[in-house]
Amino acid sequence: MSLDPMKRPSGWATMSDVAQAAGVSLMTVSRVYKNSSAVSAATRERVLAEGERLGFVPNLLAGNLASGRSAMIGIVVPSLRNSNNASSIQGMADCLRQSAYQFMITNVGYSLEEEAAAVEAFIRRRPDGLVLTGTRHSEETYGLLRGSGLPVVEVWETEGPLIDMAAGFRNHDAGGDIARHLIARGYDRIGYIDYPVPGLRRYDARREGALAALREAGLPADLVVSPQHAADAAEDSASFRGGARGLAQLLEKGDVRAVLCASDLLAIGVIFEAQRRGLGVPDDLAVAGFGDFEIAAEIPPGLTTIRTHGYQMGWAAADMLIARIEGRPLDAPVRDVGYSLVSRGSA
Amino acid sequence: MSLDPMKRPSGWATMSDVAQAAGVSLMTVSRVYKNSSAVSAATRERVLAEGERLGFVPNLLAGNLASGRSAMIGIVVPSLRNSNNASSIQGMADCLRQSAYQFMITNVGYSLEEEAAAVEAFIRRRPDGLVLTGTRHSEETYGLLRGSGLPVVEVWETEGPLIDMAAGFRNHDAGGDIARHLIARGYDRIGYIDYPVPGLRRYDARREGALAALREAGLPADLVVSPQHAADAAEDSASFRGGARGLAQLLEKGDVRAVLCASDLLAIGVIFEAQRRGLGVPDDLAVAGFGDFEIAAEIPPGLTTIRTHGYQMGWAAADMLIARIEGRPLDAPVRDVGYSLVSRGSA
DNA sequence: AACCTGGATGTTAGCGGTAACGTTAGCGCT
DNA sequence: AGCGCTAACGTTACCGCTAACATCCAGGTT
Fold first, then answer.
1. Are the C-beta atoms of B334 and B163 separated by less than 8 Å?
2. Does the pLDDT of residue A203 top 50, yes or no?
3. Domain of A123?
4. The CATH number of the domain where A237 resides is what?
5. Count of beta carbons in the 10 Å neighbourhood of residue A192
6. A 257-296 near B (Cβ less than 8 A)
7. Which residue has the higher pLDDT, A56 or B12?
8. In 3-state terms, what secondary structure has residue A76?
9. Chain B residue with minimal CA distance to A243?
10. What is the pLDDT of residues B89-138, one digit of tens each?
């Protein structure tokens, strides 16, 4: 055994070094750093002191390899730019930190192929669990997850077949509620500006919920636009600019007195475009969003919207994941964190 | 050697399993999955086929332990909610992906203690490099980094003593430029709404640059407020609401014709508050921001601001880190990605 | 005195890969 | 034929840690 830590390939002090310096066995050092209780206070002190002196930092790669647990989870999100899921990531981060887990995060746009690649890349590092966004995945992803047997939580949707667990809310109901809110206020010609990325269940559900409510009230349900623009990445259309374009498209389609948007960003864009066109909100045009981003409360006259509980959702997702990892029983594999309608000046 | 993969503790097929199935040695399988060239095409095919059949996914924990390299880097950011550094994260992510690196990310608020804890947590996983935000760190952090000998890039600031490398821009110059822009437009009583988190070099530099320009022009440089609010987390004050509060404070301080803000979020908040107070922008009040977030271009009448090149900065940071990790020579340890003044309707 | 107990510590055998070096066979060259 | 050379593969010795089991010893029981 090499006695000189400087001669080690890694350059790091190892548990052996600490053990030797403290005059105890390797295993005792391991116990100290794992906070295992079966070490006397005196020994623990001595080991920690020597560890500190040698600048010892435990190597989790080795520990994980030996123990088969990594205390790490992987998170797959569409985008890191989106402040929408930033809250949910924050919720996960806070919950995970509390339980001494770390996480890796990868953004995959809205591509199922990239998602599959990300999942495989994660699995190579043998995480203890995974969080995926949405409930639509490629066959390859399903195969990898099946093969891994890893705990998985899907977030933001509870619609669709689930892999394992999910945290989210009923997008269909939320879409219906916000539509009924406008209907109750007496608006009749109500348009809908959709999220410009096709095939996402949560946005489909929002739209269908809203349109169903319109139909039920005997109102036209065909004033729907999706402000996609060839020049932009799909994601860039899900934004202020997209909302502005959406309003323009809607006004071309015919007379519109109110606009429902699949996202607050779109709704804010609509308000800006209305300002530019000299339309008063809500007098000439009522606007409602989805998400209750910070700006919704701040922009005059206040944006009526659906508040999603992203932070709580993230926390719930992490909590379920940890419970499953640590073998604790789960009350239910799906956690509905709900939503709430926030009525402000815009509608 | 256990021949039954199902009996393995991990449940995963290993290289040995693949080697046995393909009738080659362990080392050949390793070479195939590392894309090492010294394997014949026929053998490679056979190994990959067997690997696929067995659902083999290489265990990087083991590989990293043996090789001493992890192909992973750690990123420390103040907040994940801030879309400001979301761009820079995206830049890093894209650059890292290209070079087959993964990253872990941790948010630490503006606490130097949490930062130190995050750095240690990263080091336990033996990353190949680290990215830190800002150039102010605790002694503990410095000690850990010195001991690790890891490549480190600091981002968003180039002011202050550097650990190793940095990517950012001259905040002092940018602050001066935006102030001079307002001065050139004839505004005299110019207020400054600061970032409500004390002790961050980049915001100090922005403010000092701006105030220096005001003094140089013989204008009052004491109309400075920091919209901190006891009820909020510091971070929550760095936002629309903070901007609204800042304008209120500024107007109490005296007559103000123009407002410089340390962040676009604050500036947008100022515009909203001006709207609520019936003040026209820019006729009654000119406003300038910092960051050029998407909303700056969309909000009427357009926000004059400093565009920071977050994405390029993130890319540059990752690029430098990888160069250092892979032993390629670096042209310079500090990369200045610059900034640009964007003049719109608000000032 | 012999026995049991249980907390504190040590020993052994891996976890699943990779680096470094060793071996083999086929080929061209003198 | 004998030699060296190289591509293609195999062997061995770890990387730094933990699970599982073994050991030791003080103190209480019977």
1. no
2. yes
3. 70-169+310-338
4. 3.40.50.2300
5. 25
6. 268-269, 272, 275-276, 294-295
7. A56
8. strand
9. B298
10. 989 999 998 898 999 888 888 899 999 999 999 999 999 999 999 999 99
